[in-house]
């Protein structure tokens, strides 16, 4: 693996197709003198369907990731950091014009889609809060609120992970509705400079096709 810096642009990594996001981020940290620091934020869900949350901090960047195992959550956090750093972790993949990878675009990962969209737009990351838990132990039902840039949507499911997924799907649908099309063009008209406003009005390509949100 080697790092290539050109014209002050973000570094690009080569020969990393066989490495995990954690490995790539670690090697980048060694190269730049800023080792990534991981922290377990918490865990939700039932014993048979856990959901772990990890954060990773490298330099001034902090990203979060979720997964059914601690390892998977760390990889998600590392992948998010690589995207923020604009490192070409998958140089041969089929990313769309927004930089969103096929894995993230998968309809089963609306939480990942929403997080990546927020990072690409420079928004605060989506916040998920469990606001209600009902039912007996063997039939729990959770309600989670997703907050993003002043917007709110709720999701309900048999686990917190499922509820977050539903809330994220609904948030994406709301953003599409506010945009008036499948292309998400909505911008929050607060605390924005004229230059930021101009950049934000640049249209994004379609994140989801009509059959991607079920």
What topology emerges from the helices and strands here?
Blueprint: E1 2-4, E2 12-14, H1 21-32, E3 37-46, E4 49-58, E5 61-67, H2 70-84, H3 102-105, H4 110-121, E6 127-134, E7 141-148, E8 151-157, H5 160-179, H6 194-200
Antiparallel strand pairs: 1-2, 3-4, 4-5, 6-7, 7-8
Keywords: Cytoplasm, Kinase, Repeat, RNA-binding, RNA-mediated gene silencing, Transferase
GO molecular function, one term: kinase activity
Subcellular location: Cytoplasm, Perinuclear region
List the strand order in the largest sheet: 3-4-5
CATH topology of the largest domain: Double Stranded RNA Binding Domain
SSE string, helix = H, strand = E? EEHEEEHHHEEEHH
Q: In terms of quaternary structure, what is this?
A: single chain
Total number of domains: 2
Mind explaining what this structure looks like?
It comes from Triplophysa rosa (Cave loach). Residues 20-87, 109-177 form the DRBM domain. The protein has 214 residues and is α+β, with helices and mostly antiparallel strands. It has two domains: 1-92, Double Stranded RNA Binding Domain (2-Layer Sandwich), CATH 3.30.160; 96-214, 2-Layer Sandwich (Double Stranded RNA Binding Domain), CATH 3.30.160.20. The chain has helices spanning 21-32, 70-84, 102-105, 110-121, 160-179, 194-200; strands at 2-4, 12-14, 37-46, 49-58, 61-67, 127-134, 141-148, 151-157. It has a three-stranded antiparallel β-sheet with strand order 3-4-5. A three-stranded antiparallel β-sheet has the order 6-7-8. Strands 1-2 form a two-stranded antiparallel sheet. A hairpin with a 2-residue loop joins β4 (49-58) and β5 (61-67). The longest helix has 20 residues, at 160-179. The radius of gyration is 18 Å and the shape is flat. The N and C termini lie far apart (40 Å). The relative contact order is 0.11. The model is unreliable at 1-15, 91-99 and 200-214 (pLDDT under 50).
């Amino acid at each position: 693996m080697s790092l290539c810096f050109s014209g002050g642009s973000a570094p690009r990594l080569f020969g990393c197709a066989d490495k995990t996001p954690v490995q790539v981020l670690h090697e980048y940290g060694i190269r730049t003198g800023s080792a990534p620091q991981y922290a377990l934020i918490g865990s939700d869900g039932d014993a048979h369907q856990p959901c772990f949350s990890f954060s990773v901090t490298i330099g001034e960047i902090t990203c979060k990731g979720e997964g059914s195992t601690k390892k998977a959550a760390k990889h998600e956090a590392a992948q998010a950091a690589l995207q923020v750093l604009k490192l070409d972790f998958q140089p041969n993949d089929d990313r769309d014009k927004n930089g969103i990878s096929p894995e993230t675009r998968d309809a089963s990962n609306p939480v990942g889609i929403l997080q990546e969209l927020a990072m690409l737009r420079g928004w605060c990351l989506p916040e998920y809060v469990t606001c209600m838990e009902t039912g007996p132990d063997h039939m729990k039902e959770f309600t989670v609120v997703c907050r993003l840039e002043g917007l709110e949507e709720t999701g309900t499911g048999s686990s917190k992970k499922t509820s977050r997924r539903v809330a994220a799907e609904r948030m994406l649908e709301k953003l599409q509705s506010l945009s008036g099309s499948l292309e998400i063009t909505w911008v929050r008209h607060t605390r924005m400079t004229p230059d930021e406003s101009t950049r934000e009005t640049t249209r994004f390509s379609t994140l989801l096709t009509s059959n991607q949100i079920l």
